[in-house]
Specification:
Number of helices: 3
Low-confidence stretches: none
Strand order of the largest sheet: 2-1-3-4
Strand content: 25-35%
Mean pLDDT: 95
Largest sheet: 4 strands, mixed
Distance between the termini: 15 Å
Order of helices and strands: EHEHEEH
Shape: globular
CATH topology: Glutaredoxin
CATH class: Alpha Beta
CATH architecture: 3-Layer(aba) Sandwich
Number of domains: 1
Radius of gyration: 12 Å
Helix content: 40-55%
Structural class: alpha+beta
């Protein structure tokens, strides 16, 4: 089963959509809320090729592989069909 890590903020609609999509597909997810922690958000951004926005979605099956944001996730999930 695929596992994902998703970095979010409370007020992010795309974060909520990404979480719902992954839950609906019954994937394991780890949610990291950086709403009140700018330093943690910046650390995840640096780790993920300076990704500027949330969500930051990483596949964590065998190795961590950064996917991108909501649109990138949806494109990847469509390829699975």
């Amino acid at each position: 089963m695929k596992k994902y890590k998703i970095v979010i903020k409370d007020d992010c609609g795309f974060c909520k959509k990404a979480i719902k999509e992954l839950i609906d597909r019954k994937y394991d997810i780890q949610v990291i809320d950086v709403t009140d922690d700018q330093a943690l958000r910046e650390a995840h951004s640096l780790k993920n090729n300076n990704w500027p926005t949330v969500p930051m979605i990483t596949e964590c099956t065998d190795e961590e592989r950064f996917i991108g944001g909501f649109t990138d996730l949806m494109a990847e999930l469509e390829e699975e069909k």
